[in-house]
Amino acid sequence: AAPQVYDLVLDIGSTPLLQSELPPPGYFAPGDDRDALQAALEEIPGMTGEFEKPQYFHYNADICAHGRSGITACTRCLEACPADAISSLGDSIMVNPNLCQGAGSCATSCPTGAITYGYPRLADVLQRMRVLLQAYREAGGTDAVVLYHDAAAGREAVAALAQQLPERVIPVEVEEVGSVGMDVWLATLAYGAAAVALLAPPRLPASVTREVTHQLAVAGDMLTGMGYTPATLQFCQADDAGLVDALAALPATDARAPATFAALDDKRTVIRLAVEHLHAQARAPRPLVTLSAGAPFGEVQVDSKRCTLCMACVSQCPANALEAGNDSPQLVFIEANCVQCGMCCRTCPEDAIAASPRYLYDTQQRNTRRVLCEEEPFLCIHCGKPFATRQVIEKITGKMKGHPMFQGAALERLKMCEDCRVKAMFVAEGPDDKPASPGGLS
Prior knowledge:
Blueprint lengths: L8 E2 L16 E2 L5 H10 L13 E3 L7 E2 L2 E2 L3 H5 L5 E3 L4 E3 L9 H5 L5 E3 L4 H17 L6 E5 L3 H9 L7 E5 L8 H9 L4 E6 L5 H20 L7 E5 L5 H6 L18 H15 L6 E3 L7 E5 L9 H5 L5 E3 L5 E4 L9 H5 L5 E8 L2 H5 L2 E5 L2 E3 L6 E4 H11 L8 H5 L4 H8 L17
Parallel strand pairs: 1-2, 9-10, 9-11, 11-12
Antiparallel strand pairs: 3-8, 4-5, 6-7, 13-17, 14-17, 15-16, 16-18, 19-20
Helix pairs in contact: 6-9
């Protein structure tokens, strides 16, 4: 029988059948709360009809780091979604638009920008902040504190505190607090804000709180590495009695010049531009800073004694951070592209790769092609063409020399390039079971 589909469900069990932090629209589970049950019974009759539901997200599978060739790497959006709207499709993800509630934590957690918030777009938020802060400065305002709050509970909390908020606090309404991540926070600071505060509503889902807290820690470490105080970014509770005092205590700008870069829709580019500007303005910046696990920036180290330069990691890297050498056996790394998804670590058959989260502030160094592993090429024993590394050939012949199928000429053919190997298979071997001479292969 075909599955039954319902738009409105009243779950009257003591324990809800659906355990999502944000249940689907139209699902009511009052449990043993009689008042909630009565409220649901009054609300449900008015929900009949057809209603438009916004699609809050955009997804670009081409840059998604979720999986490659059946190997799963990044699962951050799945873990951050409070509505259980995201599922794995093997090498990519699927977002159920009917379950998605627009919490935005998926976009905040995504290291590549494959999934973005579309209500509004990143570029729209940044352009709004750029114009707003410019107008604030032109009106004589200084040391602006941008207070991001959601469109429901946050709006009510700000309205209740309107008369008490310091003059330099600029409330900015967004659809959901979880939808603005470190790209927005850092760009807001670069555009001239002294500090950024996020106002968490009383019932913010735990998964969203966890993700925002983690992202704040990473961004705070990046600011610390440039000499700024981590207090520049704050996560505040709307029902905190000390909220006004906490906002008043946020730091000043130190006469920082505002950035002029355009509002873009590319997450990693926005972060790079914002950090470059803040780093240039910093008084005591370091060359790099170590970040906590899960940060979307960093490097990889390769154990050259274990690496065979098979290039499996290169073929699977979703961000093109790993490349093969042009004319020689080399493994090349571009740190600016690395999103620390761990795909290379999981792909490497020799377990020779380790990821290390950090942020290297020098743009030129981040974009420099760095050789992680290099080896002498092995030359075909007949035509002299390089076709593998010496370590690979020695390893293969070492394993095969005791096999009855790889004796004499058969073992020697492993030392030939693909063209000479095919030719040798059609050349008669001598009585002593040695491969034919080079001339016999022409």
